[in-house]
Amino acid sequence: MRTLSAMLVCASLIVGSAHAQTSIKIGVLTDLSGPYADLSGNGSIIGTQLAVEEFTAQHKDVTVQVISADHQNKPDIAAAIARKWFDQEGVDAVVDIANSGVALAVSQIVRDKNKIFLGSGPATSDLTGKACSPNTFHWVYDTYALSHGTGGALVKAGGDNWFFVTADYAFGHALERDTSAVVVAQGGKVAGSVKHPLNTSDFSSFLLQAQSAKTKVIGLADAGSDMINAVKQASEFGITSNGTKLAALLAFITDVHSLGLKAAHGLVLTEAYYWDLNDDTRRFAKRFAEKAPGRVPSQIHAGAYSATLHYLKAIAAVGEKSTTSVLAQMKKTPTDDVVFGHGNIREDGRVLHDMYLFEVKKPEESKGPWDYYKLLAKIPADQAFRPLSESECPLVKK
How far is CA 188 from CA 157, 193, 217, 281, in A? Predict the structure, then answer.
């Protein structure tokens, strides 16, 4: 009897271990207090949590903890947080980072620590170019897609002479570089540019320099509150009253909401997600609004959801959270969710999905709250992002 009892105990332990809980920790590193807080910030935490709730409802043997921190748009602060998360707090993956300079710094740390970076927020195309990493995924948009979407459309419409007002850090530089290449490739000219610090409140001197260039288009290679302030002050100065076009090269629905349709109507912009695009995007927006009443998700918030869900599905598929196994599973498995639809992941870490060219409605065209966009064109995934043949990523086989 004792022998039988011992065997039963051993069998019980074996069965118990087979159903042991897998514990995962995800860190949302975001802007909670600066110029990108509205378009990323708490909404990115919500997007991540929505993915976790959806996943764990189907996988009872997996527990997922979500923590967050404010990177304050400073690479050194973000790097310190990431190191602490990995070395002391057991974080397995980092999500968001809507600041390209911060993202580039954290991407290197993630690689050194062999963790995973789900970049739903950054813009610079260098993340899948010369600074690519096997541990980094670039999920939502990038400066190549934005420049070819918004910039390309404006050049084709006759806006062939540009001047740039550019945020003076990695994101702004990359966006100006990639858009300039599009303008020149289509036979246009770039008259010059002026750089401004991140989180600028007074754009008067920068806009006056742009106005004095007398170009057809002033390209705003900035985002968040910087872009909002630039558009508002350009309107106050009457810069667009003479026919000069403002190109908001990275604009979000949260920016349009802050500006109001009276100031923002007519802006052409490129996004990966719009809440009112189809039944699936509307359903996701409804789930988001339950946690953020009166709000709709930005494309970064949707991206945090999409990236987190794909990551968790990969862990479930391989049955463990080993970085090597999960990375391989994520890259070989097509992406599929309610916000971006079907897609896939390239060897350089670029996530491919359709992008959309929108125009902001006039006030009288809007039928209700957050009804801001008119769809101009769908940009297929294979046309939206930089071709591998042009990639500078060392991971890409030539």
Answer: 12, 15, 11, 36
> What is the CATH classification number for the domain harbouring 155?
3.40.50.2300
- 153 to 10, 34, 191, 269, 340: CA distances (angstroms): 68, 30, 19, 9, 22
DSSP string, 324-344: HHHHHHHHHSPEEETTTEEEE
Pull the structure tokens for residue 329: 């599973």
Q: Locate tokens 């087979």: which residue?
A: 18
Letter string b/e over residues 218-231, b meaning 16 or more CB atoms within 10 A of that residue's CB: bbbbbbbbbbbbbb
| In contact, 95 and 304? CB cutoff 8 Å | yes
Model confidence pTM above 0.90: yes
**Domain of 47?**
23-141+277-353
pLDDT tens-digit series, residues 35-90: 999 999 999 999 999 999 999 999 999 999 999 999 999 999 999 999 999 999 99
Q: What is the pLDDT of residue 240?
A: 81
**Number of folded domains that form the chain:** 2
